[in-house]
């Protein structure tokens, strides 16, 4: 059994050594604060059968500062899967899955790109304002490799136009103005390393964002609000001695000082309502340039950042929802950047992206292009909220511009919930109205005032009286109208019908009037009641006039109104103004 | 669900039409508010009409509620 296990283990070891690196060409770009290592490996399959997995070795320093790793077949745009494996003999191992197996004896070329942060050491550690910044790059002349390397070469690119103070020599080594070339070396065994130091001038500001907090607030009313809170610190050589603004402005190095003077933040093309401010308020030293496919914000902080100095600010903008939000039924998907441009070659120690979704979302799923730490969800109550909005919190350490990629948040949302906010506002207004309605029904008078009460009641009676008079007058008018129609049609039935309804209305309203007048008598005394009863008295004369008018109409043969008819009509009209006079006088 | 099978999300109200909606809805809501005030100050304790008051109040608050939400959106508070 033990023997079998030993064989299996031995087999595993041998099985892994099925590759040989025929040629390795490595370029280390150390011109900015991010060390960009691009390695082109050419592997040959020495195994017994087709192989599809290759291990890539990273030195300890590289692995510690590693922020981003990608691998791809050379000349092919597709990316290969890279997975971290347990380290072997001081080398961190990353396994690349080739997807299509490589046959025995065949070769494959793989390009591996690394982004390593915070490995360049400033030396000297402190400089004055007039000095330039020098840094030391620690690396190995031999490419760290899990397999034997037949032929290899390493190129270290240092700053353009900068001084190269020293570089460890591992023969053959070539020093040029902007680069150091190690190699070619032949037949280097696996796990072999040769530490070298390159000391050179690097004035690019080593500005690190210790925190980038990114808020993405989704509103289904058609807007996505993005806000970023950014804390910056210059982690290059510390400024020694005083700072003079005159010297700073007269410095002939201009932009090539190791201070962080200004930068450009590239925002999406649809960004609008852009703001840039800090604790004090708006920082006016910024400008936006609208380009074809982006909006560039040129930012100049309140002061230049020298080594060891720090600052913080907030930048925010609005995006239209239709470009980032997708829907099908009650399913919604937000597709936006997990991390966006701050300035070129930025290093972010901690990225925290918060997505504020509308209230009452369900079944939230997050799909990210790389591994992030999803923190517990939070609730944030804002405008017109009841329970608060769901906040998705995603965190990632050690982020570089290559992490600026899209991620997706899918969730379920009931469209009817859109109505909740306006209805909430309506309910608020309605409650105010209710308070007034209830308040006006309370009686706060200390002593009762019967005279005033009676007057108020009398007002109501008069109102009702005038209503009755109106109705009656309407009845008269209707009758006169039908009489005039009768003149042309000579339809007896219609006229009789009109008479009947008129009589009914008149009697009803007269009864009401009598009733109201007696009520008025009780409330405001005889004087008013007597005046009111005139409404009934003159009604009789009007009634007679109408009767006569009808008789005349029935007799008349002409279509036009005769003199007599006109007289009666005038009487009816007169009645109207008399009634108004009486009502006004009470 | 796959995002490529989804449609672009369109807001129920386009941002360009917010000012018009706000002015119309808030304006009519305020007009009804004025009517409600008239009703309150002119009526005495003998001729109050609860149903009429509630009706005017409810209509006014619906208009004011929607109008004020659109006002918030117009000024940039995306609720």
From TrEMBL, chain A:
<dbReference type="GO" id="GO:0008250">
    <property type="term" value="C:oligosaccharyltransferase complex"/>
</dbReference>
<dbReference type="InterPro" id="IPR007676">
    <property type="entry name" value="Ribophorin_I"/>
</dbReference>
<keyword id="KW-1133">Transmembrane helix</keyword>
<dbReference type="GO" id="GO:0018279">
    <property type="term" value="P:protein N-linked glycosylation via asparagine"/>
</dbReference>
<feature type="signal peptide">
    <location>
        <begin position="1"/>
        <end position="15"/>
    </location>
</feature>
<keyword id="KW-0812">Transmembrane</keyword>
<comment type="similarity">
    <text>Belongs to the OST1 family.</text>
</comment>
<keyword id="KW-0732">Signal</keyword>
<comment type="function">
    <text>Subunit of the oligosaccharyl transferase (OST) complex that catalyzes the initial transfer of a defined glycan (Glc(3)Man(9)GlcNAc(2) in eukaryotes) from the lipid carrier dolichol-pyrophosphate to an asparagine residue within an Asn-X-Ser/Thr consensus motif in nascent polypeptide chains, the first step in protein N-glycosylation. N-glycosylation occurs cotranslationally and the complex associates with the Sec61 complex at the channel-forming translocon complex that mediates protein translocation across the endoplasmic reticulum (ER). All subunits are required for a maximal enzyme activity.</text>
</comment>
<comment type="subunit">
    <text>Component of the oligosaccharyltransferase (OST) complex.</text>
</comment>
<feature type="transmembrane region" description="Helical">
    <location>
        <begin position="423"/>
        <end position="442"/>
    </location>
</feature>
<comment type="pathway">
    <text>Protein modification; protein glycosylation.</text>
</comment>
<keyword id="KW-0472">Membrane</keyword>
<protein>
    <recommendedName>
        <fullName>Dolichyl-diphosphooligosaccharide--protein glycosyltransferase subunit 1</fullName>
    </recommendedName>
</protein>
<keyword id="KW-0256">Endoplasmic reticulum</keyword>
<dbReference type="Pfam" id="PF04597">
    <property type="entry name" value="Ribophorin_I"/>
</dbReference>
Automatic annotation (TrEMBL), chain B:
<keyword id="KW-0472">Membrane</keyword>
<feature type="transmembrane region" description="Helical">
    <location>
        <begin position="20"/>
        <end position="42"/>
    </location>
</feature>
<comment type="subunit">
    <text>Component of the oligosaccharyltransferase (OST) complex.</text>
</comment>
<protein>
    <recommendedName>
        <fullName>Dolichyl-diphosphooligosaccharide-protein glycosyltransferase subunit TMEM258</fullName>
    </recommendedName>
</protein>
<comment type="similarity">
    <text>Belongs to the OST5 family.</text>
</comment>
<dbReference type="Pfam" id="PF05251">
    <property type="entry name" value="Ost5"/>
</dbReference>
<keyword id="KW-0812">Transmembrane</keyword>
<dbReference type="InterPro" id="IPR007915">
    <property type="entry name" value="TMEM258/Ost5"/>
</dbReference>
<dbReference type="GO" id="GO:0006487">
    <property type="term" value="P:protein N-linked glycosylation"/>
</dbReference>
<keyword id="KW-1133">Transmembrane helix</keyword>
<dbReference type="GO" id="GO:0008250">
    <property type="term" value="C:oligosaccharyltransferase complex"/>
</dbReference>
<feature type="transmembrane region" description="Helical">
    <location>
        <begin position="54"/>
        <end position="77"/>
    </location>
</feature>
<comment type="function">
    <text>Subunit of the oligosaccharyl transferase (OST) complex that catalyzes the initial transfer of a defined glycan (Glc(3)Man(9)GlcNAc(2) in eukaryotes) from the lipid carrier dolichol-pyrophosphate to an asparagine residue within an Asn-X-Ser/Thr consensus motif in nascent polypeptide chains, the first step in protein N-glycosylation. N-glycosylation occurs cotranslationally and the complex associates with the Sec61 complex at the channel-forming translocon complex that mediates protein translocation across the endoplasmic reticulum (ER). All subunits are required for a maximal enzyme activity.</text>
</comment>
